[in-house]
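Notes from the 1:1 (GR / supervisor)

We went over the backlog. Supervisor wanted to see one worked example end to end before approving the batch request, so GR pasted a single chain during the call. The sequence is below; no edits were made to it. Supervisor asked that the structure be written out right there so they could see what the output format looks like.
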Amino acid sequence: MAQHILETDGQVCPFPLVEAKAAIESIPAGDELVINFDCTQATDSIPRWAAENGYPVTHFDRRGDAEWTITVQKA
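Structure output shown during the call:
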């Protein structure tokens, strides 16, 4: 299993989610997509999208005052 990093810091919503959707399509099943973001709305939209599409969230953490990282596994 490999990890792929998606840096979306500085992008306003919904772009972190839009980029995550595109990025997950390009990685092999079983790999993880690590999404770094600083858009507050994405703290809800990315986990919801992952759950609705059967992608397990394996890590979700705050990196700073207004920065987060979430790791989603492609099933």
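Supervisor's comment: DSSP finds two helices and four strands in the chain.
Batch request approved.
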